[in-house]
Design brief:
Length: about 280
C-alpha cells in the first residue's frame, strides 16, 4: 500500500496548486479536498463515547476501521508510492493520524489571512447571481463586513482552519508539520518543491511549472462559488490591490503566527534565516 501524507492548512493558500504540481509525479496521487476527513470524523463519532456502539467497539477496532477507511477509499491508487490526502481537518487530528501512520507528514499551506479573505470575496463578487453555500442566510451574506466576519468564526471556513493550524503548530506532533507559504510557492516553486520532497523523504522530481492543470467545476458550482479550485497553467504570483475596505484588511493582516517560530517544533519554509532562539526549524530557500 502507498505511504500516506497529508495536505492541510488554510483555504485559498495553495493546497490545490500544490496538489496539482505533485500529481505530475507518476509515483504520487494528490488532489483537492477529499471526503476522507468527513468520513473519518463521522465514523469516529459512531463508535465513540455517547454513541450506541461506543461501549462495544474497542480502541483497536476503531484503529482498524479508520485505517481501513484510507485503504478502501484509495484502493484505485494502490499502485502509487505516495498518496497525499487534502483536508483542512487534518491539522486538528494529528494525534490520530500519526498514530495510524507514524511516518506521515503534514504539509500546511498558509497565506496572510487578509489576502485569504480578499480572495474569497473576489470569488463571491464574481458570482453575483449565486447565494453561495458559504453563508447560511442574508444576515451573514449582507455586506463584505458580515461575510468576512462570518468566515472568521471558529467553526467556519477560515476561522476553523486557522485555529486547527495553530493547534498543530504548537502541538507535541509539530515536528511532522511543514508550513509552506503561498507567496513563496507561487513565486519560487522550483525552490520550494525540492524542500517538500526532502521533508517527505522522497527523491526529487522535475516538475513543469508552466503546465499545471486542475479544475473541479461540478464541485465548485454545487457550492455556488465557480472557480474555487481552478488553477492557472503558469505558476506565478498575481500582484493586485485588495478589494477589502482598509480597516477590514488591516484587521486580518497580522494573524500570521507561523512567522514567529518560538515554542514550536514545526518546520517552516522561509525566505529569511532563522532568528536566534527560534524554536521552529527553518527550511531556507
Amino acid at each position: 500500500m502507498p505511504h500516506y501524507h497529508f495536505i492541510s492548512g488554510l483555504p485559498r493558500s495553495g493546497s490545490t496548486l500544490l496538489a496539482a504540481i505533485l500529481r505530475q509525479n507518476p509515483r504520487f496521487h494528490a488532489g483537492m479536498s477529499s471526503p476522507v476527513g468527513s468520513l473519518f470524523s463521522g465514523l469516529l463519532g459512531q463508535v465513540s463515547a455517547g454513541s450506541e456502539w461506543g461501549p462495544v467497539v474497542t480502541t483497536e477496532q476503531r484503529r482498524r476501521l479508520l485505517n481501513g477507511l484510507f485503504d478502501s477509499y484509495y484502493a484505485e491508487q494502490a499502485d502509487k508510492a505516495v498518496v497525499l490526502d487534502t483536508n483542512r481537518l487534518w491539522c486538528a487530528k494529528l494525534p490520530a493520524i500519526l498514530d495510524l501512520f507514524p511516518e506521515a507528514k503534514i504539509i500546511a499551506c498558509v497565506r496572510n489571512v487578509a489576502w485569504i479573505m480578499d480572495s474569497i470575496e473576489r470569488l463571491y463578487r464574481a458570482n453575483p447571481y449565486e447565494n453561495t453555500r458559504l453563508f447560511n442566510d442574508e444576515v451573514e451574506r449582507n455586506t463584505v463586513y458580515s461575510r468576512v466576519d462570518t468566515l472568521a468564526q471558529r467553526d467556519r471556513m477560515v476561522g476553523f482552519a486557522w485555529s486547527a493550524l495553530k493547534e498543530a503548530f504548537y502541538s507535541e506532533q509539530a515536528s511532522s508539520l511543514l508550513v509552506v507559504d503561498y507567496d513563496l510557492l507561487s513565486q519560487a516553486p522550483d525552490k520550494v518543491l525540492p524542500l517538500i520532497y526532502r521533508f517527505l523523504g522522497e527523491e526529487p522530481f522535475e516538475h513543469d511549472y508552466t503546465q499545471v492543470e486542475y479544475d473541479a467545476p461540478e464541485f465548485d458550482n454545487n457550492l455556488g462559488l465557480a472557480g474555487l479550485h481552478r488553477i492557472r497553467p503558469q505558476v506565478s504570483l498575481e500582484r493586485r490591490a485588495t478589494i477589502l475596505p482598509p480597516d477590514l484588511f488591516e484587521q486580518y493582516a497580522n494573524m500570521s503566527f507561523w512567522r514567529d517560530g518560538r515554542d514550536s517544533r514545526a518546520n517552516v519554509i522561509s525566505a529569511q534565516p532563522a532568528e536566534p532562539g527560534s524554536g521552529a526549524a527553518k527550511a531556507q530557500l
